[in-house]
Design goal:
heterodimer; A: four-stranded antiparallel β-sheet; B: 11 helices; globular
Amino acid sequence: MIEVQQLTKRYGPQTAVDSLTFSVRPGSVTGFLGPNGAGKSTTIRLLLALTTPTSGRALVNGRPYQTLREPLREAGALVDAAGLHGGRTAYRHLHWLAASNGLDRRRVDEVLDRAGLSSVAGRRVRGFSLGMRQRLGIAAALLGDPPTLILDEPVNGLDPEGVHWIRGLMRGLAAEGRTILVSSHLISELALAADRLVVLGGGRLLADETVEAFSDGYATLEDAYFARTAGAVAYRSDGAR
Amino acid sequence: MRSLHAEWIKLWSVRSTWIALGVAAAFTVGLGLADTVSTVRGWDTMAAPDRAAFDPLGSAFAGLTFAQLALGVLGVLAITSEYSSGTIIPSLTAQPRRGVAFAAKAGMLLGTAAVIGQALAFGSYLLGQAVLHGKHLDAGLGTPGVLRAVVSAGLYLTVVTMVGFGLGAVLRHPASGTAALIAIVFLAYGAAKAVESWSYLPSKLLLSNAGDVVAQVHAVAAKPRLPSLGMAYLDLALYLTAALGLGAVRFRRDA
């Protein structure tokens, strides 16, 4: 469960997130959409207490993230392409994370297996492709078997098989009753993976509804997205609608 | 404890830690050996005043100058690599309480640097004594001031490591952290010397001068430009406190 209440973040004169209120419910995959600069990344950073809000609250499973004693058991996150040290092996990356939250070391092997990385567990991350790094980041998010997952652009760099895998993974996790918030610029991918959408523009909430309701009256989700974010886009060439 | 365990795994699961310690150990042993052997070879032709000023640890500790650079860089990398690689994000999502996260990181490095510092200091001391024994120039740990000087040489290395860590925490960038470390530990010597006709205070506050003084058997009271033994320990405490304090303040800011 994710709840954002009157959340505001200003950087000097810039307002990145403007009194945002929405919640992400368990049991479904919620797509997090919006043009560049809409405030998605800032909202995710606020949810994970990586930055402090100017005002308002962001709650994960009912509590501010920074008050969670074993946060990896509460929420799994993939942010900024995983944050991996090139000189560390995949296994050690997960090992230190597991140790930090008192997780059983067997979980490391389990999530490596689940992410399809068992055969490269002992390799340094430096040699990993972007897709392998994303898989490792997702493995890290799953480490604490958390009821809530926050995935920032998880599809980036994945090959078609990887994209198919993450889609199935997210749908399976949602079916287990977990809360999944997934940001992506790939609208067609979200059309396949998401049940609900939270759409931001200019730091404000533009939509919080089911995919069907959002695209109602439009041929595709992409058409609906362009029409409904038209007023909130900073950069758009004439080619796009 | 869990955060300490995580930091322990992080520290030892990257090559740079092993390289830094390897370089520190190699230079400590190699240069210490070379310098003591050369002292022993030249002893018979050495002038009387030089013999009188002979410090039984000075030659053995010749390699520690290089060791301090390696350990200081280890300190810089221990924290800047989190920012340059982006692991600071999973680090803070795994331990969102910044104070705990910083304390675990600093504490793990401090403990490691303390052990490594003492190992290098005692290692180079014992090696040096074995060589000096040939000319009966050795000084046992029971000799007044010797144990204190050896322990202090290790302590100084620990402080330099943590100064690197503090600079890294403040600057968050490996190159600028290393540059600042070299400026403070090595280049400040020239700057302090340049103003000595006005004041000896900068020289007395210098980290490297404090390190020299505490690692000598005979406290050098004779030289007005160096801190007294008491002040030298105060200097070390000051640098350690400043490095950890400034680092902690900066660490609380957004990653």
